[in-house]
Design brief:
The chain is globular and about 70 Å long. The chain has 22 helices and no strands. The protein starts with 6 loop residues before the first helix and ends with a helix. With 533 residues, the protein is an all-alpha fold.
Amino acid sequence: MGGFERPKAFWLGVAAITAGVGLHLPMYLGARDDGYMLAGMPWDGWMIAGMVVMVAGYGSILYGLAPQLSRRDATDAAVELRALDDGRLTGAHLKLMAALTLAVAIDTQKPFTLTFVIPGVASEYDLRSPSHAAPGHWPVALLPFVGILGTVLGSLIWGRLGDAIGRRASILLAAALFIGTAMCAAMPAFHWNLVACFAMGLGAGGLLPVAFALLTEALPGRRRGEAVVLVAGVGTALGFLLASWTAHWLIPHLGWRVMWLLGVPTGLGLILLNRYVPESPRFLFANGRADEARETMRAFGVEVAARPAGSPAAPEPKLGLASIFRGPYRKVTPVLTLYGVAWGLVNFGFLVWLPVYISRLGVSAGQVTTILAKAALFAVPGAVVVAWLYGRWSARGTLVLSGALEAAALAVFAVDGRGVAQRPGALELVLIVLLVAMWAAVSALAPYAAEIYPTAGRSAGSGVIAGATKLGGVAALGMAVLSISPPGIGGAALLAAIPAGLAAVLLAAVGIETRGRSLEEIGAPAHELSATG
């Protein structure tokens, strides 16, 4: 069902990468008496051998996935796709949703992990941070900066890969990359940690838009919106919990580097979960693989009689990234990009700066952390409410409402940040509203982007919008690297409130409503968007 023709090569590559990471472990374990601190130590022979084995492993994986690059003319599948949309949720659909919920959790756990390793990284390498001046030293903010930069590029690269080699193959490739980044646990030099963090970002940024594109294309039309938003919301919340729990239990005993080693079990787990993740039927039809598409549909409980060969549709042109900024998307794509950038400025900027500003006003940073932790408890029930609104009320309206609430909460800080910060009850209420609005916005944005673009460019379009959420993070973390911050809590709030409010207003005007509509009705025909972008 959309598998690859050389599974032996793929599994050999996975084994090689895992073994290559294992060859790095003697270096890590040998430092147990020093608190697993490796700064300044030279590479040993096992590490070098491990790197060679890993390079060979990635070559084998690419060879195993390469048959997915073959492409035939699209197949006329209007009858089949109507049957797919009119179907009901089956056990196979629920397994797919469960698998991709865990995939989203594993994926989002990667960048969340940076929050918990930064103190240890700053201490071991004597890096400059808000709590450690270290003049003349590199800033520790470089680590999350290169990681988030990697997610931006990963969203764009994997978005194109998802449309070229398939959704499932792209997910497998991202999972294999997760395994390899575990080698960073034994990297002595800080700059090698930056390289591994960038690679982790590539995989993490790329997996989400492809996963949402696949899920959007496989679920029945009547339940598509709310189901995809539920997967996004619950998966993201679980990712944060996974990162925080593992950090709490492991770092005190095994040091911050152990968090990198989690790439092995999570990457392998994601690969094993793919037994429940078939290729998208729409992608298969669009690439002339009708027999595989019908086999997948039968697994989903949709029976469609095979039709005689020789009835291909017009060839589906390959779409470039520029295509999603043309035609019917010339307005909505820039607005969604602005929406994503605003979210990134809040998540990676305002919330990161907030404890520092609050402490200057005489409120302990620990109190802010406690409030944020309480607000996180609303994430899962909030995801259920957002999924209901998205699927039963309005997809566009849910995004507009979330963006407006986000801007309103930030506006309170902009108008009277000092007063709010000095009233614990008010601070807690406004932060809860802000975080719930943020969870809602990010849970609905990726599924919405996956719905509005055509099959030939759905993964690429989703990748651009997913990358936009991280682009705001690149801007905010870039300011941290340069030791620049907005003037006070009001300035930090305005930096994100203005684009968030503007995006909500513009989306209300130019957004495309997707609730209750088939993907073929929503998306423009690919030939209208074809370009060499």
